[in-house]
Amino acid sequence: MTKSHLDNTDYCVVIPARYASRRLPGKALQDINGKTLLQHVWERAGQSAAREVIIATDDPRIERAAREFGADVQMTDPNHTTGSDRIAEVVLKRRWNPGQIVVNLQGDEPLMPSLCLDQVAALLGRQPQADAASLFWPIEDEAELLSPNVVKVVLRADGSALMFSRAVLPFARDFPSTAEALAAGVKWRRHLGLYAYRADSLLRFSGMPAGALEQVEQLEQLRYLESGGAIVLEQACMPIPAGVDTAADLERVRKLISGKI
Fold it and tell me: CB 3.0 to 4.6 Å from 21: which of 8, 27, 55, 214, for a disulfide?
């Protein structure tokens, strides 16, 4: 695979993958043009500048399939409730040093641009005071803005996260329409669920109880903000296509990869 090199940031990618999926059972092993969804994700990560790419799972079916296509697999506790907790176990088992940068690539992102992996790792590498880094993309569509499935992020002047929410934030009180607000310079940003952590901050995060905002919004990144942590963000260097949550998403990705759309 051809690797991209944004800079010399040393980082690892961990892909948390589970078999159970409420909307698409066995999602990780669904076929996309002769390869599993998970293999497509792993190959995208392999095109990045990451030093290691590891699949973290608790399911022997995923372990077997991943080893067959050549992946490094770490088996983890089946009781983890989040991908972050699964990655924290990998950090401990691999005995990574406290400053090791780890990128969390979701196991249902077969179209993730490898340059975005390099970008989020490099962003954290440049911000030693930050606990984590992530990316955003501008929102210019009203339906996207109003959707509770689209997580909005509001930034401080220094580029760190002030708030994440499923609600419309900021609320443009004095503008009668989204188009007028955008024309006047109001900025809405979609948070992209790609994270880079330092190993020590990830372990701290994993050991914290969920806060009130996290429980209300069902957004685990709020745990960092509620506890006084810092997440830095910047606009992704290119659009990141939507991942696979449903059977319709799977068919869309099949067509995209085969070049039919």
Answer: 27
Task: Look up residue 249 and give its two tokens.
Answer: 């998403």
194 to each of 179, 181, 185, how far by Cα in Å?
Answer: 28, 28, 26
Gyration radius of the chain over CA positions: 18
Task: Please give the structure tokens belonging to residue 174.
Answer: 């004095």
pLDDT at 1: 39
Q: What is the DSSP letter of 131?
A: S
Quick check: bond before 209 cis, omega within 30?
Answer: no
Rounded CA gap, 13 and 101, in Å?
A: 9
Which tens digit of pLDDT belongs to each residue from 193-234? 999 999 999 999 999 998 999 999 999 999 999 999 999 999
Dihedral sign computed on CA atoms, order 135, 114, 37, 60 = negative
CA-nearest of 82, 124, 118 to 100 is 124
